Amino acid sequence: MGDRKSEILELATELIQTRGYSAFSYQNISDRLGIRKASIHHHYPKKEDLGKAVLENYTDRAKKNLQLVAETSNDPWQRLDGFFELVRSTQQKGDRICCIGSVHAALSVVPNEIGETANNLAHFILSWLSKVLRDGRKEGNMTFLGEPETQALAIFCAMQGALQMDRAESDGILESVIVQLRNNLSG
């Protein structure tokens, strides 16, 4: 991917995570990068093309990171902590929320293909977390009520909400929620 195309993609990712899909324009990108809007249209003819590219790139990164976490440890706690670290990395970029949460918050106004891409990533993460929880329960070192899939959904939703609350409050909310989730799973 060329440098300019990468810059546009990275800035669009930031804008989706900080403003939302509907609240940024090619003019915002043009102003920030000091380029003409025609340069953006050259790489991404429509905003929908750019939004789709952002979500596909975000999906590729998330999947690679979670696969790496799974490959580097068989310990369910270390894998769960690897997931929490990915969530922290979003928060540490400053004033950002997860692209999935941003798109889901505006699902009624984002193009269908972008919403579907966000949904597919959410389902991948939920499946990944379910496996971690299933393994943790099987090994006897994670305890929780209900099915692993339901617990994975609770963790995923807690992380989405914690990112948003942490951004609004800047009060260590994300860390508090992670500690509480770990304590709940410890029994």
Q: Which segments are poorly predicted (pLDDT under 50) over 5 or more consecutive residues?
A: none
Any guess at the CATH architecture?
Answer: Orthogonal Bundle
Number of domains: 1
H and E order: HHHHHHHHH
Q: CATH superfamily, please?
A: Tetracycline Repressor, domain 2
Q: Quote the CATH topology.
A: Tetracycline Repressor, domain 2
Q: Tell me what portion of residues adopts beta-strand conformation.
A: under 5%
Enumerate how many helices there are, as a single number. 9
Q: How would a crystallographer describe the biggest sheet?
A: none
Layout of SSEs?
Blueprint lengths: L2 H16 L7 H8 L3 H7 L3 H26 L3 H17 L6 H7 L6 H27 L9 H22 L3 H14 L1
Helix pairs in contact: 1-4, 1-6, 2-3, 4-5, 4-7, 5-7, 5-8, 6-7, 7-8, 8-9
Structure, described:
The chain has about 190 residues and is mainly alpha-helical. The chain has a single domain (about 55-185), classed as Tetracycline Repressor, domain 2 (Orthogonal Bundle), CATH 1.10.357. About 75% of the residues lie in helices and about 0% in strands. It is built from 9 helices and no strands. It has helices at about 5-20, 25-35, 35-45, 45-70, 75-90, 100-105, 110-140, 150-170, 175-185. Helix 5 runs antiparallel to helix 7, helix 6 (about 100-105) crosses helix 7 (about 110-140) and helix 8 packs antiparallel against helix 9 (about 175-185). The model has no long low-confidence stretch (mean pLDDT about 95).
